[in-house]
Structure formats: C-alpha cells, structure tokens
Write a structure and sequence with these properties.
- By secondary structure, the protein is an alpha/beta fold.
- Helices cover 36% and strands 21% of the residues.
- It binds magnesium ion (MG) and zinc ion.
- The site of magnesium ion has 9 residues, from helix 5.
C-alpha cells in the first residue's frame, strides 16, 4: 500500500511537471525582444496578388506561415480611414474617422510605440508618406483631426523616438507659428538628415530623417529604394539597444495608387513594400528574437483582378471605388509568438497581441 501511494504521488508530481512544461512551451506565449510592424496602407489581397503577378508569381510575403485576417471597421463607420485604422492598430481602441491616437470619446490612448518607450525599448518609424501623415501619426500623436500636420509634428517632440524617416519637413520648419522644430530636435541630440544618401554616414544615435519637404514622390518618380534603404538603417541603429526595439514601417502609397485607381502605381508600391519585407525577414531570421507582422489598415479601391499573365508579369484590374472599402485585410506574422496572429479578429487585437508579445501591461 505504501509503495502504491508513493508511486501514485510520483506519478502526480511527474504529470504536473509535464503539464507545466507544456504550458511553458506554448509557442503563443513566447516573448519577442523586438517587434517590426509593417503596414501596407490600402493593401488588400488583390493589391498583394497584383504585385505577385507583376513579379512573375512570387513575393517575400510567401515566406510567412502564420496568417490571419483583421476586421477594419471604425467605431462609428463601416468604412475606416487611415486615422481610425491606424489608431486601432496602434492603441487598441476603435475610434471615429480621422481621429489620431484618441478613443471614440476623444480620450488620448497610449500607442504600442509609447509603451515600448516607457519600457525602455528603442523605437522607430519609417514611411513613404510625410511622417506626420495619419498612419505614423497614430503611433505618435493625439489629435482630433489627422490633417493637423503642424500639431502632429509638435507631438513628435513629446516623445523620444530614436529614428523617424519619411517626408514632411515643412511641418517642422515652415510653420504658421513661425517656430522651427528642427532646432529643438537638434538640441535634443537628433541628427537631422535631409537627403537619403546622407543616411549612410550615420552609424549610431538618434535620427530625424526628413527627406522631403512634403509628400515623398512615388517609387517611379524619384523615390526609388528609399523605403528598403531607410529600413535597413533604422534596424542597424535600433538593434544597438540591449532592451530591444519597436519599429513601424509603412508602405504608405499602396493606398495612393488605390485612390488613383492605378494598377501600375499599386504594383510598383507593392513590390517596393515587399522588397522591404524581404529585408526585414533577413534580419529577423538572423536575429531570432524579432516578431515581424505585416498587415494593412484597410483596402483601397475595391480592386478586382480580372485578367493577367504570370509568366509575362501582366495584371489587369478594375476598381469599384476611389475610396476605401470594408473588406477584411490579411495579417502575416513571423517569429516568436507569431502563432497568435492566426484567425479572424478586430484590428484592435493587433495592439493586444503586440502588447502580449512584448510582455507589457496596459496602464495609462
Ligand atoms: Mg497611411
Ligand atoms: Zn486612403
């Protein structure tokens, strides 16, 4: 009897330990040291497949194995804009159209970038729009209206983002209030960079890369490889942080091609964005502690592909609107904890999943 009880006890202890091991090894709970979030503005499945077809049937996106869908509706609108869409992803709150970093009751909510900063991580933004544009602004600013670019530029000064690169210089140095915010940035140890080629010279420290007066041009009209080059530099700088980093990268102009109902514009921006994804994946594979997420804030154009030729890289599309649509957008995840991005969920869940991946607690 005594032996039997001892045996039973050993069995119970063994099983408990075994169950704890399983719990410990649940891949969904794996923490990430770094998160790189890539947002293709206006990037639905058709935009991706247009780029894939034009690129003879392949994109770096095919490397992702954990895939889900995000529902993009705004708090008060079936069709979102990039303000409400960006805010939902950045803060975990659905809000009204054109809002930046506020919930539907206009209460400012901290973004994942702000939580990363509070928790000692380095932070960065690289975009092909103005840095004050709706998507990057949602991670930085708290404003009722997305077009308050000068106020949003001011909000950059309240944070300590290590690297931000994009357009929109004039909202910092040619303002109605006459202030020159670049002076403030320089006084706060930012290295100001106005030309893409000058980025190469910088090896460490903070970067304010304001490469264009206002909007950056589209890929084929002078911007060229700005996005992958700036992304590579941002990762090089941010990876010096022992605590890890959060980096948001936006392929901003996939959306602008959608508003123009231009398949060619969408395709060139999609391939540029995918080249950037390839660069990020290369780093993440080497690093092993980086969670990479690729998604969109909404689809733009109601794009439908009605003809194409993969061998010739030809794609023909039609559009149902020059505005955004309400369809779900894909989510692709790679790296530690990427399993939890499977399934269908609201866009606000992207914030919750990123917080969980970093092991952060919510608090105001
Ligand atoms: Mg955008
Ligand atoms: Zn748009």
């Amino acid at each position: 009897m005594k032996y039997y009880l001892t045996f039973l006890l050993v069995l119970i202890l063994h099983n408990t330990a075994y169950l704890q091991d399983i719990k410990k090894e649940n891949p969904q709970d794996k923490k990430a040291k770094n998160i790189i979030l890539l947002i293709g503005d206006g990037m639905g499945v058709s935009q991706i497949f247009a780029g894939m077809t034009a690129n003879n049937g392949h994109l770096n996106l095919e490397e992702f194995k954990n895939i889900g869908f995000s529902k993009t509706q705004a708090a008060n609108d079936f069709i979102t804009d990039s303000g409400a869409g960006g805010t939902a992803i950045a803060t975990g709150y659905k809000t009204f159209g054109k809002a930046i970093g506020l919930d539907k009751d206009t209460i400012p909510r901290p973004s994942i970038l702000e939580y990363a900063e509070r928790n000692g991580k380095s932070t960065g933004l690289v975009v092909t729009s103005q840095v004050t544009h709706a998507t990057p602004a949602s991670f930085v600013a708290h404003q009722k209206e997305r077009y308050l670019y000068e106020e949003i530029a001011q909000d950059f000064l309240t944070l300590d983002i290590d690297v931000f690169i994009g357009g929109g210089l004039k909202y910092f140095n040619d303002r109605k209030d006459g202030r020159d915010l670049t002076t403030f940035l320089a006084a706060n140890d930012y290295q100001l960079v106005y030309k893409l080629k000058d980025l190469a010279k910088i090896k460490e420290g903070k970067i304010a890369g304001l490469l264009y007066e206002d909007k950056p041009p589209r890929f084929s009209k002078g911007r060229k490889d700005m996005l992958p080059i700036a992304t590579k530099k941002a990762i090089e700088i941010l990876d010096r942080s022992k605590e890890g980093f959060f980096l948001m990268i936006e392929g901003s102009q996939i959306d602008w091609g959608g508003h123009d109902n231009s398949t060619k514009y969408i395709v060139e921006e999609m391939i540029d964005f995918d080249n950037t994804i390839g660069q990020v994946l290369e780093f993440a594979k080497w690093d092993g502690n980086t969670l990479v997420i690729v998604t969109a804030d909404h689809e733009t154009g109601g794009m439908s592909i009605h003809d194409g030729d993969i061998a010739k890289g030809k794609v023909k599309a039609q559009f149902t609107t020059t505005d955004h649509t309400g369809v779900m957008v894909p989510v692709f995840a790679y790296g530690p904890g990427s399993e939890k991005f499977r399934g269908i969920y609201e866009n606000t869940e992207l914030f919750n999943k990123m917080m969980k991946s970093f092991g952060f607690e919510k608090g105001e």
